[in-house]
Specification:
alpha/beta; Beta-carbonic Anhydrase, Chain A; 5-stranded mixed sheet; 5 strands; globular; binds zinc ion
């Protein structure tokens, strides 16, 4: 599970020099990282905590400006015949929180669902059940973020077409957030506290409304986790 060669070396290996590496060495490098498209064997060998650890490492690469050197065309070729993603991530619609980038993952590594306020409905639950029960993903990650416009909209009781119903899904998090201070959308600390509560409530919702995912987690086949992304510094703060 150790990196015996610099990352640039094994990315190059996928293109040209694979024959120079012992196969076992090559597999060991890939299995310890989400930096290239995962094979079924590599994904299946990972435990849910290992998948979480890989996302943490990927975020460290992102925020330190040392992202993996990638060949998307090679990843496209490698993954076209089959996908073996290790995680399903539910994130916000916000243009500033692209999960593949902030976790530095490649094509075929993660299922991503995005909707304003990272809320769940039946379709999103069905997508997560497909990801884990049918496609073998090991981690469900709910990713909230700071300064979330959807959370601000819920706090402000914004009424706008279909958005009204979406914001209603966030409102329980406002009531559930214990906070001393001004409870308005102008108070960044309150907005972020509500966003964090929202992630926790969404996780509880997933467990309650999806017996399939709850059972997989109970068996240890998957992990359901939460995290908050900070727009200003690129850091993902994992809840556990
Ligand atoms: Zn948002």
């Amino acid at each position: 599970m150790t990196h015996s060669l610099p990352r640039r070396t094994f990315v190059g290996a996928t293109l040209a020099s694979l024959s120079f590496l012992p196969l076992s060495s090559y597999a060991a490098q890939l299995s310890s990282s989400l930096a290239n498209s995962l094979s079924k064997a590599e994904r299946d060998a990972m435990t849910p905590p290992q998948v979480l650890a890989e996302l943490k490492k990927g975020n460290e690469r992102f925020r330190s400006g040392k992202m993996a050197s990638r060949d998307y065309l090679a990843e496209k070729r490698a993954s076209a015949a089959g996908q073996y993603p290790a995680a399903v991530i539910l994130g916000c619609l916000d243009s500033r929180v692209p999960a593949e980038i902030v976790f530095d993952t490649g094509i075929g590594d993660t299922f991503i669902g995005r909707v304003a306020g990272n809320v769940v409905n039946d379709d999103m639950l069905g997508s997560m059940e497909f990801a884990c029960a049918a496609a073998g993903a090991k981690l469900v990650l709910v990713l909230g973020h700071t300064a979330c416009g959807a959370v601000k909209g819920a706090i402000d009781d914004v009424v706008l077409g279909n958005l009204t119903g979406l914001l209603a899904r966030i409102k329980p998090a406002i009531a559930a957030t214990k906070f001393d201070g001004e409870k308005s959308s102008k108070n960044a600390a309150f907005v972020d506290a509500v966003a964090r509560t929202n992630v926790s409530l969404v996780i509880a919702d997933i467990r309650r409304r999806s017996p399939i995912l709850e059972e997989l987690e109970h068996k240890g086949s998957i992990k359901i986790a939460g995290a908050m992304y900070t727009l200003t510094n690129g850091t993902v703060d994992f809840f556990d």
